Amino acid sequence: MGSKKSKPQPIPDFETPWRDIDWNEKEDLEAELTNIQLNHPELRFVRILLHGPVGAGKSCFINSVQSVFRGEIKTKAFEQANAKKSCTKTYKSYTITDKNAVILPFVFNDVMGLETQDEDGIHPKDIVNAMLGHIEDGYKFNPISPLSDGDPGFVREPSLEDKVHCLVSVVPASSISRMETGVINKMDNVRKEAMNLGIPHVVVMTKVDDDVCPLVNKDLTQIYRSRKIKEKMLESSHRLGPPMKCIFPVSNYHEESNMNNTKDVLILTALLQIVKSAKDYIEEQH
């Protein structure tokens, strides 16, 4: 009788975190973001454009950011659980306010999700139009035909404030490996357009505690000890283009009714890098 084959042993997680993070710095992160100085006479805020596949958590990330600064669960952007089609239909700006209802110096724009079929989801050229500031707030997207000069909703002479100052790709850790090539190609084309324009690109990797890694699912503070999460980040870097230092895993608020300090710190850490990148871009426009 042959001996039974032994099962392959799982690769162990890291003994120490491979990226430093202070879980007690929430207040410091909030203060730094609240007090960002743009030092530009034309700007009240930096504009952050979120894009990615349907169901990645773009709207949920906006709501999570608002929740962190208000200290309670909030819903500004419309969300839909298990969405198969994009629930975002129009181009809309979302300001973020603190507990005193003060508007903070950054604004988000959400767009339709990207899909493989050209007749579904946002047309990649409209993401470029948004980056250039050509899309009017409230414009309803047409997946078949991107906005062009002369169309209603086209801003012919956008100001610096109309333009996007940082492009953020939102991708789910739970399905980055299964993202269709067509969607990846569209995201790659958008990234290349952003690079040509000098616009910084950051990746927010959502759903890190969605059965991706037992260690993280049990304790979110172990996220940078997780080999599985690092593998997902490396895969995001490989498939989407940016270096690891520009990829930030987060856990959005999607089912909780109470706030969580660990989630807050991850969200604020990602947001601070996004805002700093946007500010650097703006300073280069002088």
TrEMBL record:
InterPro entries: P-loop_NTPase (IPR027417). Gene3D superfamilies: P-loop containing nucleotide triphosphate hydrolases. It comes from the Eukaryota. GO terms for biological process: immune response. This is G domain-containing protein. The lineage of its organism: Eukaryota, Metazoa, Chordata, Craniata, Vertebrata.
